[in-house]
Design a protein that fits this description.
By secondary structure, the chain is of the alpha/beta class. The protein has helices at residues 11-14, 33-42, 53-58, 60-64, 86-99; strands at residues 4-9, 23-26, 46-52, 73-77. A 4-stranded parallel sheet has the order 2-1-3-4. Strand 1 (4-9), helix 1 (11-14) and strand 2 form a beta-alpha-beta unit.
Amino acid sequence: MAEKIAIIGDRESIKGFTAIGFDIIECSDLSRANSVLRTAAEGEQYSIIYMTEEMYSAAEKECKKYEEKQLPAIIPIPGIKGNSGIGRERLSYFVERAVGSDIIFKN
């Protein structure tokens, strides 16, 4: 069973995550986002893959392929360029699917 956590994004946004034990997968080229995610997800070694929101947006079609799968959970987080709201949007979506209504953000 996968027990590791990875983070995908540009170097400046993700470098601090090594301190808490995440595997760092550097990718600054948005055109490679799909293949980088696919490689990390299909290796079945990660239970959670965090991605900077910028990287998540670039690989959105690939991310959707994993929505119905139990693992890995793919979670967008803000990068060094700021928060675009994608992470909150995705969390709201998953809470609503699980519970039947958005009990966190109450949209």
